[in-house]
Design a protein that fits this description.
Chain lengths: 360, 360
C-alpha cells in the first residue's frame, strides 16, 4: 500500500482520549475517522463515524474494517482475534506482533531481554511454589505484576519480605504473573519514537516522567538525559521497533540510573501506541505524536519531531479537573479536557501543558 | 451567563473549514459542538452533532438553539432573522449588531468612519446616476463593490476611467453597491483581536497578508508594523470591537501606507469571526484564534496570545492541494487539509504553516 490520500478513512479501535486526539490529528490531515469501541467515549465527539461493538465480535470488527482504509488502535489490549479479523480485511498498524508482545509482561520482558537490552530481574509466577522459587532468585523488595491487563499501577502487589507472598498472590487474584526485582534508578523517562512503513524513524526529545499512585503525573521536557545517554535510549527504542517491524508511534518506558551506573538505562515496558507522556508534543512541537502516528499508519513520511518550546505536562486526574476556571486563566498554558462526564478518582480527565521558551 | 462549564454545547452556524477548526478548538476545551449548516461540510466530521437546514428556516434554527448552550457562527452572512431566532433562545456571540454592520459594506464603512478611523473614500451607488455622482466625487481609478455578499474578490468591478461605469454596473448585476476610491498603500495587514464578555481583550501579533486574484495567499508573521503603528492598529481594532460590544475574535483588515503617510493605517473591512489570516496562530501560538473565539463565546477568559515561533501561512487553493505528498515531507511545516472532496479552482482546500524560531 502506498500513502493513503487525504479523504481516506482511518479506523481506530478504542474510543478514549487517545483515540480522540488521534482522530483530531487525522482530521487535520484531511482524513475521515471511524472509531470502533465497546462503549461511547470521548473520541466519538470528534470522529465522522463510530461503531459500538464488542471487541470479541470478530464479525462486527470485520464489517467495520470493510468501511475503513487502514486500522490502528489506541490501547494495547485489543484482543488478538480482533486484530486478526481486521487484518484479514485491511492493514493493521502497528501489527499484531506488537500487540502480542505488549499484552503479556512475561513475553514483553523476554522479548526486550532477547534484544540485549537491560531489564529488571524477572521470573514467571503461576502459583505459590513458583513465587517461592522466584523470590529465592530475585529476593525482596520485589513487585508481583499480573502478566495481562495491568495498567496505571493496577494488578500489582509489592513484597517487602518473603512473608508477603501469600497476600501478594491474593491481591492479584492468583492470576498468571511475573515477579520483578527492584532496580535502583534516578528517574523515569519515555522514548516516543515514530517509525514509518519504510522503516525510517524520528524520535521526540525524551521527557522526565513522574508518577503518583502508579499514574503518570507529569512529563517535563527537556528531560535529564545527557547526549550520550539520549543516543543509547533512542538506539534501544529503535531496536524494539525494528524487531517488531513496527509502524506507528511506539513508547518505550525506561528507568534512568545515572551516567555512572553499570546499567544506566533499564527498559521497563513499551506501549504500542501514542502515550500520555507524549501529550506535551501537541503544544511544544510543530507536529505532535498523534499526527506522526497517523502519518505512519497512513503510509506517509514521519514529520520532523522538532520542538519549539520547553514544556511541563501535568495530568488532570479526577477532581483536578474542577480547577478548570483557574487553569483557563493561566498564560502560556494549553488546557486539554477530554469531555468525560464524571470526574471519578484516578480517572484521566484532561491535561495542561505549560510552555516556556527553550532555555539556551 | 457566567462561564459555561466543560461539557456544555457550543452551537456553530456554518459547516466550512472555519467551523471545523472552531469545533476542534471547542472539543479541546471539553465542549460538545453542534453545527447548523445548509449543507454537509468539513465541520461535520469533527462535531458531535450536526443539523442540515436552511438558514432562513427560523423554526429549525430555534429548535437547534434549544439543544445548545450558546450560539456562534463561522461566516458573516448569517441572515439576521436566523440570528434573531437563535438569540430569542440562547445567547448569540458575536451579537447581531456585529453581523448587521459586517453584512453591508455601506453600513460598515459608515460605522468605521464614524469611529474616527481612516477609510478609503466611498460613496453609495444604487444606479447609473448615483455612480456618476460618486465618480465625480471620488474619481478614478476606483472600485465598485456590491454592498452585500461579496467575498474573495467576488461582486467587484474596477473602474479605470469614467467610461467603465456601465460595464462595471453590469458586472455587479446592478446590485446596491458602493464606489471606493483607491488608496496608496505599502501592504495589507489584519488585526486579530479577541474580546471577552467582560470587555477584556488580547490581540495577536499582526501579520502581513498577500492576495492573489482577490484571495488571501499568504500571511507572514512577524508583519511589517513598527511598534508605534502596532499600538495604533490595535487601538483601532479595539474601538471597532468596543463599539459593537463584541464578544469573540474579530478580524480588522487594514492597509498600511507607511509611517510617513498622513494616513498610515486605513481600515478596509472587518469580519465578525475567525479569519484565514489568523490560521498561523494554530501552530505558532500556545492558544490559537479558534480557541480564543470559543473561550470568549463560552464566557471564559481570553488566553494570552503569546507567539512562540515565526510563521508563514500559505493557502492551498484548488489544485495546490495535489502537492500534499511533497508538502507532507517538509520539516517544520504544519499541514492542514480541510477534508473537501473536490479541488475546484479558487476553493480553499487547506493551508500549510511553515515555522521558524523567532528571529532575535
Amino acid at each position: 500500500m502506498s500513502a493513503l490520500p487525504p479523504g481516506s478513512t482511518i479506523g481506530i479501535l478504542g474510543g478514549g482520549q487517545l483515540g480522540r486526539m488521534l482522530a483530531i490529528a487525522a482530521s487535520r490531515l484531511g482524513f475521515q475517522v471511524h472509531i470502533y469501541s465497546d462503549t461511547s467515549g470521548p473520541a466519538f465527539d470528534v470522529a465522522a463515524g463510530h461503531t459500538v461493538g464488542d471487541y470479541n465480535d470478530t464479525g462486527a470488527i470485520a464489517a467495520w474494517a470493510e468501511k475503513v482504509d487502514v486500522v490502528t488502535y489506541e490501547f494495547e489490549n485489543v484482543p488478538l482475534t480482533a486484530a486478526a479479523a481486521a487484518a484479514a480485511i485491511k492493514p493493521v498498524r502497528p501489527n499484531a506482533r506488537a500487540l502480542e508482545a505488549a499484552q503479556d509482561r512475561l513475553t514483553e520482558k523476554r522479548f526486550i531481554a532477547d534484544l540485549g537490552l537491560a531489564v529488571a530481574p524477572f521470573a514467571p509466577v503461576d502459583d505459590y511454589e513458583s513465587l517461592e522459587t522466584a523470590l529465592n532468585e530475585i529476593g525482596t523488595p520485589a513487585i508481583l505484576k499480573t502478566r495481562r491487563l495491568g495498567y496505571d499501577g493496577k494488578g500489582q502487589a509489592r513484597l517487602t519480605t518473603d512473608d508477603d507472598a501469600k497476600s501478594a498472590l491474593d491481591t492479584i487474584a492468583h492470576a498468571p504473573a511475573i515477579l520483578e526485582g527492584y532496580v535502583e534508578f534516578e528517574c523515569e523517562i519515555s522514548i516516543l519514537l515514530a517509525r514509518a512503513v519504510d522503516g525510517s524513524t524520528a524520535c521526540y526529545d525524551i521527557p522526565l516522567n513522574t508518577h503518583v499512585n502508579g499514574i503518570l503525573a507529569t512529563s517535563t521536557i527537556p528531560g535529564p538525559l545527557p547526549d550520550p545517554m539520549t543516543e543509547k535510549a533512542i538506539d534501544a527504542a529503535s531496536r524494539v521497533a525494528s524487531a517488531l517491524d513496527y509502524v506507528g508511534l511506539i513508547t518505550v518506558e525506561m528507568f534512568y540510573a545515572g551516567e555512572n551506573s553499570d546499567q544506566p538505562l533499564i527498559v521497563n515496558e513499551f506501549a504500542p501506541r501514542v502515550h500520555n507522556s507524549g501529550h506535551w508534543t501537541l503544544d511544544a512541537c510543530a507536529v505532535c505524536q498523534f499526527e506522526n502516528h497517523i502519518r505512519a499508519v497512513a503510509g506517509w513520511p514521519i514529520a520532523a519531531t522538532t520542538r519549539h518550546s520547553d514544556a511541563v505536562m501535568t495530568n488532570l486526574i479526577g477532581a483536578d479537573v474542577n480547577d478548570w476556571p483557574t487553569l483557563a486563566g493561566e498564560p502560556n498554558a494549553c488546557l486539554h479536557l477530554y469531555g468525560k462526564n464524571e470526574a471519578r478518582a484516578g480517572r484521566k480527565m484532561g491535561h495542561i501543558t505549560r510552555l516556556a521558551p527553550i532555555a539556551s
